Amino acid sequence: MIEELYYKNPYLTEFTATVTECIPEKEQYKLVLSQTAFYPEGGGQPADKGTLNDNTVLNVQSKNNKVYHYLEKPLEVGSEVKGKIDFAYRFRNMQHHSGEHIVSGLICQKFGAENVGFHMGKDVVTMDFNHTITKEDLIEIEKEANRAVFQNLPIEITIYSHEEIKDLHYRSKKEIEGDIRIVKVPGYDICACCGVHVTRTGEIGLIKLLRADKYKTGTRISMLCGERALAHFNLLAENMNRVSVLLSIKDEEVAEAVEELYQENKALESQITRLQNELFTNEINAMPTEEMKIVFKDGLDSNALRNYCNKLKEKAEKAAIVFSKDNDGYRYVMMSRSINLQPIVKELNSAFQGKGGGKPDSVQGQLIGSEQEIQEFLKKAL
Ligand SMILES: [Zn+2]
Fold it and tell me: Distance from the CA of 101 to the center of ligand 1, in angstroms?
């Protein structure tokens, strides 16, 4: 059986070993070593990163009591290799894994809920629970979890035989055969786990629970610990600061000020619509009624375009069309009180690389062409 250096000393960053197997698999080679500090993916914790004799270790997996290191190139069986662990990455994983145990332990104590999923993602770590956890619960749990950090408690790892463990009450995701590795955070959690942990809770740093989302019939909690929590805080602070500088207010007044701005903006929008409506009505009232009304009017958004056309159709016996400039062409709305517009729109679109459609009495779309060409085409078509 391979010597698992990552369990003996989770802080070991370099080691030497002998290559005992080198098996080609697809485009890669999987190596077995006499001993290794590379943690293989398991228990929700991702595989370690690093190098073997300067070759990047692409993946680490364990199967049948062997640890397989995946490389692009083969290494000779019997040769000695020097392994280097990407410790910054590993330490982050240790911090998050230990943090997860504390949070899951607290949630288990409080609600009797089980952790049914754990994923250490690139951006965030998620934990799934078979219980509803509210925003208020989350604040409480976060506070208590950080208290465990402040106490700098030892994280104790013990191997129990089946006989020895009978009376121990512990969390476990599955039935385990043989010896059981128990990770204990005194007062907070006792859990069967194959992962690599920090030695004392203080090393986890801040435990920040970002959000609780409904997930299946329970809750998914997103979390960041240590430096990643700090980086996240800095990102939020930077965003907050940009808004507060822009609005010349204090950081803590941002939410209120943005809410006010939003309401003001909504009020202005409805004022614009009201004024625009008055303007359109006056403009269109002064027009004579004709068989066909074609208007080119720039600066109208899609609502205003529809609004204008709706009024204009009262002055058109057959059809009213309004065009407004848009990037390399025009957006248009066409309405009628008497004819089916669909065949005309089809022709119009095919003549001017247009697209769009709608109901027989109201269509909209966009096309590319000059005002003169469009006018001429429509006069012939209608
Ligand atoms: Zn674990």
Answer: 6
Q: State the pTM of this model.
A: 0.81
Give the right CATH number for 90-234 from 3.30.980.10, 3.40.50.150, 3.30.310.50, 3.30.110.10: 3.30.980.10
The tokens describing 233, both together, are 């805080």
CA distance 281 to 285: 6
pLDDT digits (tens, 9 = 90+) for 91-114: 999 999 999 999 999 999 999 999
Continuous H helices in the chain: 5-8, 87-111, 135-150, 162-165, 226-247, 254-285, 302-312, 342-351, 371-381
Topology of the domain comprising 287-381: Diaminopimelate Epimerase; Chain A, domain 1 (3.10.310)
Q: Note the pLDDT tens digit of each residue in 267-322.
A: 999 999 999 999 999 999 999 999 999 999 999 999 999 999 999 999 999 999 99
Q: Are 363 and 333 in contact (CB under 8 A)?
A: yes
**Ligand 1 mean position to 307 CA, how many Å?**
61
Q: How far is the CA of 198 from the centre of ligand 1 (A)?
A: 12
15 near 34, Cβ under 8 Å? no
Instruction: Return residues with CB closer than 5 A to ligand 1 (ion).
Output: 43, 193, 195
| Spacing, Cα 141 to ligand 1 middle (Å) | 18
Number of neighbours of residue 271 by Cβ within 10 angstroms: 10
Q: How far is the CA of 213 from the centre of ligand 1 (A)?
A: 22
Q: Rounded to whole angstroms, how far apart are CA atoms 119 and 97?
A: 10
Rounded to a whole number, what is the distance in angstroms from the first to the last CA of the chain? 87
* Fold topology of 3-85: Elongation Factor Tu (Ef-tu); domain 3 (2.40.30)
